[in-house]
Write a structure and sequence with these properties.
By secondary structure, the chain is of the alpha/beta class. It has a domain of 155 residues: Tetratricopeptide repeat domain (Serine Threonine Protein Phosphatase 5, Tetratricopeptide repeat, Alpha Horseshoe). Helices cover 46% and strands 11% of the residues. Strands 3-4-8-10-9-11-12-13-14-15-16 form an 11-stranded mixed beta sheet, sandwiched between helices. A 3-stranded mixed beta sheet has the order 1-2-5, with no helix packed on it. Strand 15 and strand 16 form a beta hairpin.
């Protein structure tokens, strides 16, 4: 009996040991780093609960050295295992991170992607969602926590891919030398080519991560949504995706080649030449040697009046984007895929700064011309409060509302695919990007159970659409499609219900204006090439023969019988040539004629009025410097350069009250993103207070100086103890010689005073 009992115990012990070994083996296998085989080699990721994450997989060769401003190149094959366990730096940029997000490292070596997958199983094919971030084409990251795909992969079983693309001038600079060296005879749009290269990688490799290359949905927000718009009309992206989602796109649908839409290659090349000159580069070879951080810096030291070209944008280059987007959608030449798109109820929140009522009215009349009265009837400005509300509504409509409605309408008319339109009202916050935490189930973005429930619905709509091309299902409130004769939108917020597209009368009015602009631009839109005389002058400019260029551009044959667009280019090039010959008066005259001719993109127009503000300041036309400076910051935040130009112009024309009002708005943070007022602003404000003998103002400003810039500042109402304007001008010009003697106090710097 005892022997049998002992044998039974041994059998039980062996069984238990075997079970423990099997369990240990299974656990170790489960905890082991997941691996996948890509076309370039084996890559290992990390396991986060029940999903696998691959961080920083290269999808293109680093765009550095001679590959700067070239189409993305293939990744070389690697041996061994590539450990994709850390996020890679974001592409070089000079912009703060998203609110509440930590700063990330930057690098020119940045073409990487991240993958979140429920299971690495090449046999099972899951829907794939590829996200394209926003950031105004100046900033953005594929690794920001807000955009992580872990929750979507875990909750809804999709594979999420976030990919990077070059931004700013490194991503969108066009230049004639770059056009000449490219085999496809175009330049710019490198950021778009990056995204297309990422989609090609997904097409070839995503099955190794459990994804279905035949069911890929691209989705993006803001600038990312603009890229989605462009991908749908690019022949280079055809077949790489099967559905599209766009959140708050603004800019692509306006008439190309005008102030309301994308620029053509020729115009972008000219801006690229000007940009290179600001950095002292006479060739692309020299520009490639300029450090990346200097290229993406927000301000450039260069000749007065040369506009800052840092706000790079996609262009109609004839290669990536073959023609005006509106025209291509209207002709049904876009990708025939289902489309889900929309925008938010309060896109203007934190995105623009209202201007004075009189300035708003003047801006409406300048932009909308003969239709201005119609616009002022629906965007009235009979009081300051009413003007502020109207500015916000018009800004949303011109930036997002009309563009999204037009895109939906044209795709519904010509694609024979379903369109789903949304209007995000949220839970009290519907600003630009407010939908993103709900789309990605970003838990830190929720403060209540109601918000979490709303996120469950929104994210499920998105993943349902990725799975089937239809957001409906899973017991969600029914979302009817947007149709040509039934323009329905789904309202996403505390309640989910369909209704008529909001602000349709505003869309119709804006459409009438855009139709007029498009009609007026048809004469040049189909032939955006330089005529022979202009080509010769253009070559002179490239070779720095400015006097020869001026001679050709002012000759009768340069303007006789030319189209309005040719005359626009004449003024554009003349202004550039005059600046380089220090003839600021004629440069201002040429660019003033060009500024309001309707052919500048919105971004170029803002840069041009910035240049005119600087030129008029140099010419001591302070009234015009203020006028153009205010136009430059209309609906946006003022940067350091315009702070200086406008503030100094007010002061030097003897308008102490205007100086105080403007500088007060800066110091109080009304028209700047900066958390701390600049020392220059406080100094100028203090000096104006002294000029007006306003003791309350000067005392308050002095307290702010001591708070933000502790030192030896002290008040003396008979005159400043130190002389702020002298100090300010020393900061700006390195001395006092440029200040009108009769309007400046003695030039004593703070350091001199302290000594």
């Amino acid at each position: 009996m005892s022997g049998t009992h002992t044998q039974e115990q041994m059998r039980l012990g062996l069984a238990l040991a075997s079970a423990l070994l099997l369990t240990s083996w299974a656990c170790s296998r489960q905890l082991a780093a997941p691996q996948s085989i890509t076309e370039s080699g084996v890559v290992s990721g990390v396991r986060e609960g029940d999903i696998a994450v691959y961080k920083g997989i290269p999808f293109a060769a680093p765009p550095i050295g001679l590959l700067r401003w070239r189409a993305p190149q293939n990744v070389p094959h690697w041996s061994g295992v590539l450990h994709a366990d850390k996020y890679k730096p974001q592409c070089v940029q000079n912009w703060p991170p998203l609110p509440t997000m930590p700063a990330e490292p930057i690098s020119e070596d940045c073409l990487y992607l991240n993958v979140w997958t429920p299971a690495v199983d090449a046999k099972r094919k899951r829907p794939v969602m590829v996200f394209v971030y926003g950031g105004g084409f100046r900033a953005g990251s594929a690794s920001t926590a807000l955009y992580w795909g872990n929750q979507l992969a875990r909750k809804d079983g999709v594979v999420v891919v976030n990919l990077s693309y070059r931004v700013g001038p490194l991503g969108f600079l066009a230049h004639p030398e770059l056009t000449a060296e490219a085999g496809y005879r175009a330049s710019g749009n490198y950021g778009l080519l990056d995204v297309i290269a990422g989609l090609e990688w997904v097409h070839r490799n995503v099955s190794a991560f459990g994804g279905d290359p035949a069911n890929v949905t691209i989705f993006g927000q803001s600038a990312g949504a603009w890229i989605i718009n462009n991908l749908m009309i690019s022949p280079l992206a055809r077949g790489l995706f099967h559905a599209a989602i766009a959140e708050s796109e603004g800019g692509a649908m306006g008439p190309a080649g005008t102030g309301e839409g994308m620029a053509f290659l020729v115009r972008a090349e000219m801006a690229g030449v000007a940009f290179a000159r600001t950095l002292g580069a006479r060739s692309i070879a020299e520009l490639r040697r300029v450090p990346a951080d200097k290229i993406t810096a927000s301000d450039f030291a260069g000749l007065p009046g040369i506009p800052n070209s840092n706000m790079a944008l996609p262009i109609v280059d004839g290669y990536v984007i073959p023609d005006d987007p509106y025209t291509l959608y209207q002709a049904g030449k876009q990708a025939a895929v289902p489309l889900l798109l929309g925008y938010n109820a309060d896109e203007s929140a934190h995105m623009f700064t209202p201007v004075a009522t009189a300035t708003f009215i003047a801006n409406v009349r300048q932009r909308y011309g003969t239709m201005a009265d119609q616009f002022l009837a629906v965007y009235p400005a009979n009081s300051d409060a009413e003007a502020v509300r109207s500015q916000a509504r018009l800004w949303v409509e011109s930036s997002f509302g009309w563009h999204m409605w037009t895109w939906a309408r044209l795709h519904a008319q010509t694609s024979h695919n379903k369109v789903y339109f949304y209007y995000f009202v949220g839970d009290g916050n519907a600003g630009h990007g407010a939908e993103l935490p709900y789309v990605f189930l970003y838990a830190k973005g929720f403060s209540s159970r109601a918000e979490r429930d709303m996120a469950e619905k929104v994210s499920t709509y998105w993943t349902n659409f990725a799975k089937t091309g239809d957001p409906n299902g899973d017991d969600l409130p029914p979302w009817p499609p947007f149709q040509e004769r039934d323009e329905t939108a789904m309202f996403l917020g505390k309640s989910f219900a369909p209704g008529e597209v909001p602000d349709r009368p505003l869309h119709i009015l804006m459409d009438a204006y855009m139709t007029r602009v498009r009609s007026e631009s048809l004469q040049h839109r189909n032939s955006p090439k330089l005529s022979k005389p202009l080509k010769e002058a253009y070559d002179d400019l490239k070779d720095q023969r400015y006097a020869d260029a001026i001679s050709k551009l002012t000759a009768a044959e340069a303007v006789e019988g030319k189209t309005a667009y040719d005359l626009h280019l004449v003024n554009d090039m003349l202004g550039f040539a005059y600046v380089h010959t220090n003839d600021y008066a004629d440069a201002a005259k040429a660019w003033e004629a060009e500024t309001d001719d309707g052919f500048l993109t919105q971004a170029d127009q803002r840069r041009r009025v910035r240049a005119l503000a600087a030129l008029n300041y140099q010419l001591k036309n302070y009234e015009k410097a203020i006028e153009y400076g205010q136009r430059a910051i209309n609906g946006s935040y003022v940067d350091d350069e315009m702070q200086r130009v406008i503030g100094q112009a007010y002061y030097l024309k003897g308008d102490w009250k205007g100086t105080i009002e403007f500088e007060d708005r800066l110091v109080n943070g009304e028209i700047t993103r900066a958390e701390t007022p600049t020392e220059e602003s406080l100094l100028l404000l203090y000096s104006a207070c002294i000029k007006l003998q306003d003791s309350e103002c000067s005392t308050r400003t002095l307290e702010q100086l001591n708070r933000y810039y502790p030192g030896t500042w002290r008040a003396d109402l008979r005159g400043p103890a130190i002389h702020p304007v002298g100090t300010v001008m020393a900061f700006f010009f390195g001395g006092c010689a440029d200040i009108e003697a009769q309007k400046r106090p003695p030039c004593i710097s703070r350091r001199q005073q302290e000594r």
